[in-house]
């Protein structure tokens, strides 16, 4: 039953009972019969009230069961989501670590290449410097010879 139907039904029952009691009070009956009729109507009203109370308790229990089930479902979903996120984080961390190792190895290789290139350049520079030095030395010796020759001629 929906709330509006339940309220209407309860009002109809209470209104009917009140009308029945009023009718009994105004009916020409002896006192004993009237009291019995009123007692019967009150008992009917109490039975109806108990029925509504039982229905309310039953609905409350149903709502509680649904709430418990929903809570359990939410807990399970949260655990699954947490587990999934943890797995993704672990995998990502592993990939980042692997990438960092590769970058470190690449840097070491590049540093070694640069060092070797610098050694080659330095060696070539030494050789060229030695060649220039030899040329200059030969030129100086030639000038010295020319000067000696000029001095001897004087």
UniProtKB/TrEMBL annotation:
The UniProt transmembrane annotation reads: 6-27
Q: Which InterPro entries match?
A: Desiccation-related_membrane, YtxH
Coiled-coil spans in chain: 122-150
Q: Which SUPFAM superfamilies match?
A: Apolipoprotein
Arranged from A to Z, the UniProt key words for this protein are: Coiled coil, Membrane, Transmembrane, Transmembrane helix
One Pfam family, short name: YtxH
Q: Does the keyword ATP-binding apply?
A: no
Protein name in UniProt: Gas vesicle protein
Q: Give the species.
A: Trichococcus pasteurii
């Amino acid at each position: 039953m929906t709330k509006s139907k339940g309220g209407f039904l309860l009002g109809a029952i209470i209104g009917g009972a009140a009308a029945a009691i009023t009718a009994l009070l105004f009916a020409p009956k002896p006192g004993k019969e009237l009291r019995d009729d009123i007692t019967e109507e009150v008992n009917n009203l109490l039975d109806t009230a108990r029925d509504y109370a039982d229905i309310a308790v039953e609905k409350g229990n149903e709502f509680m069961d649904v709430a418990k089930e929903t809570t359990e479902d939410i807990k399970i979903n949260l655990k699954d989501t947490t587990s999934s996120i943890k797995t993704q984080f672990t995998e990502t961390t592993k990939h980042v670590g692997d990438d960092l190792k590769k970058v470190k190895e690449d840097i070491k290789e590049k540093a070694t290449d640069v060092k070797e290139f610098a050694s080659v350049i330095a060696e070539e520079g030494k050789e060229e410097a030695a060649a220039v030095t030899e040329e200059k030395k030969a030129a100086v010796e030639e000038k010295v010879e020319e000067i000696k020759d000029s001095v001897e001629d004087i």
